[in-house]
Amino acid sequence: MRSYSLLAATAALALSACASDKPVERLCPPAAAVAGVERMTSFRPGGGQDLTDVAFTARVDNVESVCQYDDDGVEVAMNVLLSAERGPADTTRQADLQYFVAIENGPGNFTAKEIYDVSLPFEGNRRRVGIVEEVDIMIPTPADKDFSGIRILIGLQITPEQVQYNQRNRGR
What we know:
Helix content: 10-25%
Strand content: over 45%
Number of strands: 8
Number of helices: 2
Distance between the termini: 71 Å
Strand order of the largest sheet: 1-8-5-6
Structural class: alpha+beta
Largest sheet: 4 strands, mixed
């Protein structure tokens, strides 16, 4: 009889610990670069796709995020590290590109997408440059109040030809 009361007391103590007023810490929705559009190669106008025709290459190098939940949803502050490298056909000494931030709530269900313009100048003798873009987004609370299917996808806004080039040149 004594072991049953000890077991019941232990269970009651464990349950009371679960009912504390301590807020439940939630993880940020994952934020990452999308494979296949995380890099791009820009060729000189009218040229071919030979290495000598490359104006610049660019890529999403890293994404870091922190978030804060409230009754309206989750506010996500991200640092998106973009880099570019000059190619032999560069004449402008600048990499002009676009990147996107998209919200996916379940596979293939995109609820928002924003496109950002950025210029990365190649100053002096620099062949490679980088920039950290600060992006703040607010993701409203889903109807089912479940954030577990939400992902934040980041990529370069590229043409179908550039996607094909990336597919042909994986690992380079």
